[in-house]
Amino acid sequence: MAYIGFAKTDLAPYETYTRILEELERRGFKIKFSKHHWAGDMPFGLVIVESDRGNIAVRWALGKIFELRIEEVSDEDLNEFIDDTLEYISGD
Questions:
Q1: What is the pLDDT of residues 80-90, one digit of tens each?
Q2: What is the band of 30 on the pLDDT scale with cuts at 50, 70, 90?
Q3: By the 8 A CB rule, do 62 and 47 touch?
Q4: What number of CA atoms fall less than 13 Å from residue 43's CA on the CB side?
Q5: Can you name the residues that pair with 61 across neighbouring β-strands?
Q6: How do residues 31-41 score in pLDDT, each as one tens digit?
Q7: How distant is the alpha carbon of residue 77 from its chain centre?
Q8: What CA–CA distance (Å, rounded) separates 29 from 43?
Q9: DSSP category for residue 63
Q10: Do the beta carbons of residue 57 and residue 44 sit within 8 Å?
């Protein structure tokens, strides 16, 4: 199983990363590994997580409050979501 997520946050990048991981754990995901991608001049980033329930990618953007929405997707859709987001972050 794979998941993609969309988060809005009013926090700094590191605090957003931590908050997303905490929220995933609260929802029953046991995190095995995680990493965070963002560029200092962009108001969004990507958190990639390996968990006991499958891989997760969460794209976050600045907002007024913290919110997180997650949906189940195919592995192919997850990989495309990650590739597209990383390409945009890197400016390619």
A1: 999 999 988 87
A2: very high
A3: no
A4: 8
A5: 8, 44
A6: 999 999 988 77
A7: 14
A8: 26
A9: -
A10: no
